């Protein structure tokens, strides 16, 4: 037929382009079998490295005083609405703190709950000067609580060797600070084992 030579030439050129590693004899052999598998050589894509967004270092946070509470803001009355919000948050978390609720279930939820806004009291301590401190937790760090007292004094109380109590709707829970040496974000994901009391 007319143009068959042109078609043959085109096919040979196309196959040679598509399979550059194969010799002409091999291509001809493949054509006689009527089975042609075209090879594909995709261009290698260079992966672009994602730039990680860098946050502030601990030194920069200290220099910027990000976590410091200004003296004029250190007033107990300012944070009472925060405490009311915390109480509602705990009631919702524990489904109302009903009288028939199992104490160990509530205790387990309180161990993972956010304590910012809770009113706590230091009930036991190796350092007698800490015993009796009561106030609203303003900040929780890995090793300390920052508490504002009714006298508008900001107290930094270490968790280690201290036992704290918090009361809500008649339910009193005790926090053993020595077993609580975690950041709030880490604590929410940790599995706590219920153990007996710990002597200081």
Summarize the structure.
30% of the residues lie in helices and 19% in strands. The protein is of the alpha+beta class and 200 residues long.
Write the layout of secondary structure elements.
Elements: H1 4-18, H2 24-32, H3 58-64, H4 80-93, H5 103-112, E1 119-125, E2 134-140, E3 144-149, E4 154-158, E5 162-168, E6 171-176, H6 184-187
Antiparallel strand pairs: 1-2, 1-5, 2-3, 3-4, 5-6
Protein name: Ribonuclease P protein subunit p29
Organism: Sylvia borin
GO biological process, one term: rRNA processing
CATH topology-level fold name of the largest domain: SH3 type barrels
What general form does the structure show? elongated
Query: Which class of the largest domain in CATH terms?
Result: Mainly Beta
Distance from first to last alpha carbon = 103 Å
Q: Got a strand count?
A: 6
The amount of beta strand, in percent, is: 15-25%
SSE order, as H and E? HHHHHEEEEEEH
Q: Over all CA atoms, what is the radius of gyration?
A: 35 Å
Main location: nucleus
Organism: Sylvia borin (Garden warbler)
Subcellular location: Nucleus, Nucleolus
Protein name: Ribonuclease P protein subunit p29
Task: Tell me about this structure.
The protein has 200 residues and is an alpha+beta fold. It has 2 domains: 2-47, no CATH class; 74-189, Ribonuclease P/MRP, subunit p29 (SH3 type barrels, Roll), CATH 2.30.30.210. Helices cover 30% and strands 19% of the residues. It has 6 helices and 6 strands. It has helices at 4-18, 24-32, 58-64, 80-93, 103-112, 184-187; strands spanning 119-125, 134-140, 144-149, 154-158, 162-168, 171-176. It has a 6-stranded antiparallel β-sheet. The longest helix has 15 residues, at 4-18. This is Ribonuclease P protein subunit p29. InterPro entries: RNase_P/MRP_Rpp29-subunit, RNase_P/MRP_Rpp29_sf, Rof/RNase_P-like, Rpp29/RNP1. Keywords: Nucleus, Phosphoprotein, tRNA processing.
């Amino acid at each position: 037929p007319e143009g068959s030579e042109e078609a043959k030439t085109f096919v040979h050129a196309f196959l040679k382009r598509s399979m550059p590693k194969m010799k002409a004899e091999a291509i001809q052999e493949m054509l006689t079998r009527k089975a042609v598998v075209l090879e594909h050589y995709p261009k290698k894509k260079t992966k672009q490295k994602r730039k990680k967004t860098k946050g502030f270092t601990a030194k920069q946070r200290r220099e910027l005083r990000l976590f410091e509470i200004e003296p004029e803001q250190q007033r107990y009355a300012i944070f009472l609405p925060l405490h009311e919000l915390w109480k509602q948050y705990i009631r919702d978390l524990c489904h109302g703190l009903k009288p028939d609720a199992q104490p160990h279930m509530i205790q387990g939820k309180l161990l993972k709950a956010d304590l910012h806004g809770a009113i706590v009291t230091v009930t036991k301590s190796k350092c007698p000067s800490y015993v009796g401190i009561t106030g609203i937790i303003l900040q929780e760090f890995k090793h300390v609580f920052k508490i504002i007292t009714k006298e508008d004094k900001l107290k930094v109380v270490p968790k280690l060797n201290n036992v704290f109590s918090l009361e809500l709707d008649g339910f009193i829970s005790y926090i053993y600070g020595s077993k609580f040496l975690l950041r709030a974000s880490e604590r929410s994901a940790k599995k706590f084992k219920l153990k007996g009391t710990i002597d200081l």
